[in-house]
Specification:
Elements lengths: L8 H10 L5 H13 L3 H13 L6 H14 L2 H13 L6 H13 L3 H10 L5 H13 L3 H13 L6 H14 L2 H13 L7 H13 L3 H10 L6 H14 L2 H14 L4 H13 L3 H14 L15
């Protein structure tokens, strides 16, 4: 119970430390809690402690640890965990295989994702969708489409997540025609309902390619209210293609959708600066000041080799 409540995790840890007998369920609960809250190093430290106390993990434990490796983008820890699974002959479920495909992709090793997929004795639609997403993440749109077509040829039914992965892959690779065709297929398939994420992906694809009229038509005709992501992607596309006229038209919608998001104001300022509209920049800064918004700074992380 305490593990599910983020603010009460310290109580869960006290109970855990005070337990004289710790079974795999207790270990999995505490490791999963730290992994979910983003304290991945603590999750990995507990997993190592679990191994030293010779408690064999189950698939729930391993999924939590894989999630921690993804949070850290640590291929080193991910490979170590994969090796541990193979070395001790732990049961290799479909969900575990899917998680490893995702882990290798998110940690920058597409070959590892592909190898896990090919070695899996059984696959479900999630397996196919995860590898399609992995190809998309690494900019391999053509391979993602080929895998999607192979999936359908083998009789595996795609779902909304699969189509989103394909659209995202087309977006990353700039495959506009192919992305539009996939979107039309989904729209014509009554079994699958299009979500705001599908529309956002298509709008972003059209915007990046400079097809603003098509993108705006999608926004006008979509059956749900456009999200902040949609407005943001359109304004970003305006910056990319130097379309200040459209950016100014969309600016109010962007601010209304997320009035407390500093990134939106920063994006507008960058567009105005590129076109020398200094008065507009000053107006945006005044609006930020009234909202008491401050620009936050980003950071990068790299993993050095041994």
């Amino acid at each position: 119970m305490y593990c599910q409540c983020g603010e009460s995790l310290h109580i869960a840890e006290l109970i855990f430390e005070g337990s004289s007998f710790r079974d795999v369920v207790l270990w999995s609960s505490i490791i999963g809690s730290y992994s979910r809250r983003g304290d991945s190093y603590k999750a990995l430290k507990l997993f190592n402690k679990m191994r030293t106390e010779e408690t064999e993990p189950n698939y729930v434990t391993l999924l939590a640890v894989i999630s921690a490796c993804i949070n850290l983008s640590s291929l080193k820890h991910g490979c170590g965990l994969h090796g541990y699974i193979l070395k001790f002959g732990l049961s290799f479920s479909i969900s575990l295989g899917n998680a490893l495909i995702n882990m290798y992709a998110k940690c920058g090793c597409l070959d590892g994702s592909r190898k896990i997929f090919l070695e899996m004795p059984h696959r479900d639609s999630v397996s196919w969708s995860t590898l399609i997403s992995a190809y998309g993440l690494h900019g391999c749109g053509e391979q993602a489409l080929q895998l999607f077509y192979e999936m359908r040829e083998r009789g595996v039914e795609p779902d909304a997540i699969t189509f989103l992965a394909v659209l995202s892959a087309c977006n990353h690779a700039g495959l506009v025609t192919e992305g539009q065709q996939v979107f039309k297929q989904v729209n014509a398939d009554c079994k699958i309902s299009l979500t705001i994420e599908h529309y956002a992906c298509l709008v972003d694809l059209l915007g990046r390619s400079g097809k603003f009229e098509d993108a705006l038509e999608i926004v006008r005709t979509m059956p749900m209210k456009p999200s902040a992501r949609i407005w943001s992607s359109l304004v970003s596309a305006c910056k990319l293609h130097g379309r200040l006229d459209i950016a100014e038209m969309l600016a109010p919608q962007l601010i209304i959708s997320e009035p407390d998001n500093v990134a939106n104001y920063t994006l507008l300022n960058m567009i105005y600066a590129e076109h020398g509209h200094w008065l507009d920049i000053e107006q945006v800064r005044k609006a930020m000041k009234l909202q008491r918004l401050k620009k936050s700074y980003g950071f990068s992380r790299i993993e050095a080799g041994d």
